[in-house]
Design goal:
Helices cover 32% and strands 22% of the residues. The protein contains 14 helices and 19 strands. A hairpin with a 4-residue loop joins strand 15 and strand 16. Bound molecules: guanosine-5'-diphosphate.
Length: 453
């Protein structure tokens, strides 16, 4: 039976005036964790999310301090936005102050707004780069939020103390270590059924509410677990009103969609089975692939498809022609409206994520390459034959292969494509873009006094 459980993950919001070092702090904790920006440029909010794991605890870290156009008025609204957000959505608030500036009038304003908030509020006094600044926190006590923690986000001083303090407010996670969340985005043209897909998946009819028209695309990561694996879903459909006429921006691929694609482990590209495959679909898939994104393609609205497997075969053939990389991706037929194969799509996304981390043993790879070369030698170039000496998988995510050859300048694009196909046909990298590199390896000679290149 399909099982689904939503997890509540604590959100920790970083707030504070501009230039106090919120982003430095965010980056220090976030490390390489997935993060994303939560608004489109030109609108008033810009938020970064990261999933932070610390031992058995996991939380979402949110940098609320984005780009706010306007002068003094902008500053007011910035503070209002940050405080409002942290009051509404955060479990813990980390308020960053500047040790060099001391308490400014703006900080006093923030204190006033935070005073009635019944949530843990931690003061982090940043830029405490030396001992005297470390110790000189007296001024900040008077804000009335307890003991400030002096840190230097830039140099990493005391940030572990701050992290220890944060996690005292974060409950232990049920997620086992090493099983980090797979971040999945659901992308596609307007009306292909992204919201329906997410609604069907979460099964709670998440209603789309446009709280502040024109300013907010309040897209937050949606954590859930399925088949004992943790996922985080990123919705790209935004908070658009259902019957709104699509703007030019939405017709094209929005900046928001691009960012979400770049930040997720796997993108589920939804196509509308009624429309077949459009050039816009091709553009989105190319973008995913070119950004080393893993991809699952799903034809949605299959409840409206008449006919049997033959019809589906035709769809796939057409897809392969229109979107070349689809040859290397799983393709599904689903109905978001009726919940048909929605969970299969998530399982497939999980498989694709695992493929992106798969390693092929060097001896197994070389056996395949040897046989391949016997069947299909590269054409002559510059009066020479290209010789593959050996190949090895150098890395994962994306899986990258290095072919050591007698002369890398002899490699032609079509031979590279051929080798790519060979790798896909022998190893299950379905849905993940592999990379191939060629390196020239010169013959080495042995000298009496040892080995010399
Ligand atoms: P979005 O713009 O990609 O988020 O698309 P929506 O989820 O808002 O869906 C657009 C329209 O397509 C709505 O009227 C949905 O009811 C409809 N729709 C979505 N999925 C399906 C499906 O699987 N079958 C059918 N028949 N209609 C669907």
């Amino acid at each position: 039976m399909e099982k689904q459980l939503k997890q509540n993950i604590t959100t920790v919001a970083i707030i504070g005036r501009p230039n106090v070092g919120k982003s430095f702090l965010f980056n220090r904790f976030a490390g390489k964790a997935v993060s994303l920006v939560d608004a489109e440029p030109g609108v008033t909010r810009d938020r970064l999310y990261a999933e932070v794991r610390c031992g058995d605890k996991i939380f979402y870290l949110v940098d609320t301090g984005g780009f706010y156009p306007g002068g003094g008025e902008g500053m007011d609204s910035m503070i209002k936005n940050q405080v409002e957000f942290s009051i509404k959505e955060a479990g813990v608030i980390v308020w960053v102050l500047d040790a060099k500036d001391g308490v400014t009038p703006v900080d006093e304003d923030i204190a006033l707004k935070l005073r009635p908030v019944k949530k843990p509020i931690i003061l982090a006094v940043n830029k405490a780069d030396n001992i005297s600044r470390m110790e000189d926190t007296g001024d900040f006590y008077r804000l009335g939020f307890g003991e400030p923690i002096s840190i230097s986000a830039l140099h990493g001083l005391n940030t572990d103390v701050l992290l220890d303090k944060i996690i005292t407010y974060v409950p232990e996670s049920e997620i086992k270590a090493g099983e980090e969340s797979i971040w999945i985005s659901v992308v596609g043209r307007p009306n292909v059924g992204k919201s329906s897909f997410i609604n069907s998946l979460l099964n709670d009819n998440r209603v789309i509410v446009d709280k502040e028209p024109g300013t907010t695309r309040g897209v937050i990561p949606i954590p859930f677990s399925f088949e004992e694996r943790q996922f985080t879903l990123l919705d790209t459909s935004g908070l658009r009103k259902k019957n709104k006429v699509y703007t030019d921006l939405e017709q094209k691929m929005s900046v928001w969609t691009r960012r979400v694609i770049r930040r997720s482990h796997v993108s589920i590209l939804l196509l509308d089975a009624q429309d077949g495959v459009t050039s816009q679909d091709a553009r989105i898939s190319d973008y995913i692939w070119e950004n080393s994104g893993n991809m699952v393609i799903a034809f949605n609205k299959c409840d409206l498809l008449k006919g049997d497997d033959k019809v589906r075969r035709k769809y796939i053939d057409f897809l392969h022609k229109r979107i070349r990389v689809s040859n290397f991706c799983p393709v599904l037929f689903i109905s978001a409206l009726f919940g048909q194969d929605v969970f299969t799509t998530i399982s497939t996304a999980k498989d694709v994520f695992n493929h992106s981390r798969m390693r092929v043993k060097t001896n197994v790879l070389n056996k395949v390459i040897e046989e391949t070369v016997k069947k299909h030698q590269a054409a002559y170039a510059k009066g020479k034959h290209l010789k593959i000496l050996y190949a090895t998988q150098a890395s994962v995510e994306p899986p990258s292969f290095v072919f050591f050859v007698n002369d890398a300048s002899l490699v032609k694009e079509n031979y590279k494509r051929y080798l790519t196909k060979v790798i896909y046909s022998h190893f299950d990298f379905s849905g993940t873009p592999i990379q191939i590199f060629f390196r020239t390896r010169k013959r080495r000679k042995f000298y009496a006094d040892g080995y010399s290149p």
